[in-house]
Every structure is written in structure tokens, then in C-alpha cells.
């Protein structure tokens, strides 16, 4: 997921998406507009200041929810790529799978447990503020934070991917049946059913006159449906590619681009008469020094193509995904999905023997599905 890096917390990379500004505004508006009912007698400015403060604390609570997932995953030996706050709260990207159902359950439950714990702490703070005679607006904000965190924790426990409850369901089914992929596919389909229910409920709310609530319910349902469908497609793709090696998917002996050629020469002499979208880049000694793609070539302004060398725009080898011919294609897919690009160079004995692109993988999946039409029919 894209986002603006803001640093590290507890050693974990943290990003913020622009959608957080929308969330901050919605939370601020929601709190500032309800405070006059629960804490009357204050100025409009005071309500809005309290709204901003409450919304900021709630965003911190959302981050704590995601951070709990990340910390538990890291302690279990699962790589954590980053934690991103965005429009729907937050996302923790993992670079691998839990080794056991018990570990998967711990990672999944950590977020909702944190939200429910925060709900209890904010409720206790609200009661303490009231007992100490603090202002009614402080009491109201504390109870509002308690309610939202409780709602967040409980909603995330609904049994359907990508919600945490879906991951809990997945861990339980994995433990019960001993089949991780089957469990994940069932959780994705449960998420799809949950999405349909939320969309239908949203439409009923809309028709009943609760327009804003109805739109939000339907919108959240649509988001869950999209994420669940994506998970399902990925699982079915992985199943279709089970047992396939990188050598079976790669384009063998790809044409190499000379690092010393200008972009203009490369386009005219190589690109126009070829069908590839990525090329290994070689130096004068024949060693592969990087990878150049159509996207990189496209970024070079037409007026600079005659003076820009291919080697100057190539992606260096330390940023290129490397695969072995005998490596399982599903393992390579996991590494590519973890943010290492959409292509991999295949190296054998120190020499580049092939390249794997998204087009290669798409074609292979289509062919495998034609050849094995029932291979991915879990639960169907």
C-alpha cells in the first residue's frame, strides 16, 4: 500500500496515507457536532477544539490497533513490511505467513484486543473525570473514545476476511482441517458474504431515511467485498501454480540492453522490433548490472533521450528481485507481493538465464486453469 513514510516506531516502518485527513475531518465533525447534546454550555470553538483533540487521540488508537498486530507478528518471527494509516483505519503488511494456526490466531486477535482494552481504559478515565468533578466536555470525549474503540474492536471481530475476525476464522479452520489454503479461501468467502449483508443493510438504512449511515454501511461493505475478492483470486492463483517452478514460467535467455547505449538508440534498435517490457542491462564486460523497463524509458523526456544512457536509468541489481530456476513460483509470488516489484531476473550459476514478468505469470495461470479446471474448487 502506498503512503508517506513518517519514520519508525518500535523499529517498524510507519506510513500515512492522504486518506487520514478525511478520517480526521470526519471524526472531528462527528464529535464536535454531538458534544453539545452530551456536554451543553460550551462555545462552538470549544466543541471544535475538543473534536480535533478527540479525533487525534482516536487516530492514535487506530495506530495502536495496527501496531499490536505488527509487534505480535514480529515476535512470532513473521516479517513486518510496514504499518500504514489510511482511510479505513490502518493496514499491517506482513512479508510472510504465520507458521502455525496458534500463531496466526495470536496475530489476528492482537488488534481487537488492543481496541477493547483501550475502550475500557477510556471508560475508566471518563468515570474518574466525573468523580473528580472535571468538565463535562472532558467526560464526554473520554466516553466517546471508549465507545468508538469498543465499536472498532467488535466490528473487526466479525467473521470474514479481511477483518481480524476473518483471520481468526481462518486460524480456527486451519487448526481444524489442517489445510491453510482451504481455511484462507473459506475466510475470504465469508468476507464476501459479510460484504453482501453490509451492502444490503446500508441500502435498507438509506431507504429508511438514514442516508449518511446507509451510504457508509454500503461503502464499507463494498470495501470488504473488494478485499475479500482480491484474497480469493490470489489464493486460487496460488493453487493453480502449485508445483510450478520459476523455470516453467520464465522467458528464457532474454535480450539484454547495453548500458552504454543511449535511450534513443535503444528504443530504435531494440525496443521497436521486440515484444518485451523489461530488459537486463549489461556492461562492456557482459555482466548484468541492472534492469530497465518500459516505465523507466517512458519517464525520460523525448528531448533527453539522445543524451541519456540506458545504464543511467536502469534499476540497480540490489533493487531487482532475483530468483533461481528451481524455486517454486508461489514462493517468488510472495516475494513480489511483498513490494519487490513486478518482475524477477532468473539467475543460475551467476548468469541470467531468464526473466519472469507479470505477463508470464498471467498466461501461466490461464493455461493451468484451462488444463486443471477443478484444481481450485475448494468448497464448491
UniProtKB/TrEMBL annotation:
Binds 1 zinc ion per subunit. Its cofactor is Zn(2+). CDD domains: S2P-M50_SpoIVFB_CBS. Its main location: membrane. It is a multi-pass membrane protein. Zn(2+) binds at residues 65, 69, 164. Residues 250-307, 314-374 form the CBS domain. The active site is at 66. GO terms for biological process: proteolysis. The chain crosses the membrane at residues 18-35, 47-64, 107-125, 131-155, 194-225. Keywords: CBS domain, Cell membrane, Hydrolase, Membrane, Metal-binding, Metalloprotease, Protease, Repeat, Transmembrane, Transmembrane helix, Zinc. GO terms for molecular function: metal ion binding; metallopeptidase activity. It comes from the Bacteria. InterPro entries: CBS_dom, CBS_dom_sf, Peptidase_M50, UCP006404_Pept_M50_CBS. Belongs to the peptidase M50B family. This is Zinc metalloprotease.
Amino acid at each position: 500500500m502506498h503512503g508517506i513514510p513518517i519514520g519508525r516506531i518500535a523499529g517498524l516502518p510507519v506510513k500515512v496515507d492522504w486518506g487520514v485527513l478525511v478520517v480526521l475531518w470526519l471524526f472531528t465533525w462527528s464529535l464536535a457536532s454531538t458534544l453539545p447534546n452530551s456536554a451543553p454550555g460550551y462555545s462552538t470553538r470549544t466543541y471544535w477544539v475538543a473534536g480535533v483533540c478527540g479525533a487525534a487521540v482516536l487516530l492514535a488508537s487506530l495506530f495502536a490497533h495496527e501496531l499490536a498486530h505488527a509487534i505480535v507478528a514480529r515476535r512470532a518471527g513473521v516479517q513486518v513490511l510496514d504499518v500504514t494509516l489510511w482511510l479505513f483505519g490502518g493496514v499491517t503488511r506482513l512479508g510472510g505467513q504465520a507458521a502455525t494456526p496458534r500463531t496466526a490466531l495470536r496475530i489476528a486477535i492482537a488488534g481487537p484486543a488492543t481496541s477493547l482494552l483501550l475502550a475500557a481504559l477510556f471508560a475508566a478515565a471518563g468515570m474518574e473525570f466525573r468523580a473528580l468533578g472535571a468538565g463535562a466536555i472532558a467526560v464526554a470525549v473520554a466516553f466517546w473514545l471508549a465507545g468508538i474503540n469498543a465499536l472498532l474492536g467488535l466490528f473487526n471481530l466479525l467473521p470474514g476476511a479481511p477483518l481480524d475476525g476473518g483471520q481468526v476464522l481462518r486460524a480456527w479452520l486451519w487448526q481444524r482441517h489442517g489445510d491453510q489454503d482451504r481455511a484462507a479461501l473459506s475466510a475470504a468467502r465469508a468476507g464476501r458474504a459479510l460484504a453482501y449483508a453490509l451492502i444490503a443493510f446500508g441500502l435498507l438504512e438509506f431507504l429508511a431515511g438514514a442516508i449518511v449511515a446507509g451510504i457508509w454501511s454500503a461503502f464499507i461493505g463494498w470495501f470488504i467485498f473488494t478485499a475479500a475478492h482480491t484474497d480469493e483470486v490470489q489464493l486460487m492463483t496460488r493453487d493453480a501454480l502449485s508445483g510450478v517452478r520459476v523455470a516453467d514460467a520464465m522467458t528464457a535467455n532474454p535480450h539484454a540492453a547495453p548500458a552504454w547505449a543511449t535511450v534513443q538508440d535503444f528504443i530504435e534498435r531494440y525496443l521497436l522490433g521486440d515484444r518485451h517490457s523489461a530488459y537486463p542491462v549489461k556492461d562492456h564486460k557482459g555482466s548484468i548490472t541492472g534492469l530497465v523497463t518500459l516505465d523507466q524509458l517512458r519517464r525520460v523526456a523525448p528531448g533527453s533521450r539522445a543524451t541519456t544512457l540506458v545504464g543511467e536509468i536502469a534499476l540497480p541489481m540490489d533493487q531487482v528481485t532475483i530468483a533461481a530456476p528451481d524455486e517454486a513460483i508461489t514462493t517468488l509470488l510472495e516475494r513480489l507481493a511483498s513490494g519487490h516489484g513486478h518482475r524477477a531476473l532468473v539467475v543460475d550459476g551467476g548468469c541470467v538465464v531468464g526473466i519472469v514478468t507479470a505477463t508470464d505469470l498471467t498466461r501461466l495461470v490461464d493455461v493451468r486453469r484451462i488444463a486443471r479446471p477443478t484444481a481450485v474448487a475448494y468448497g464448491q
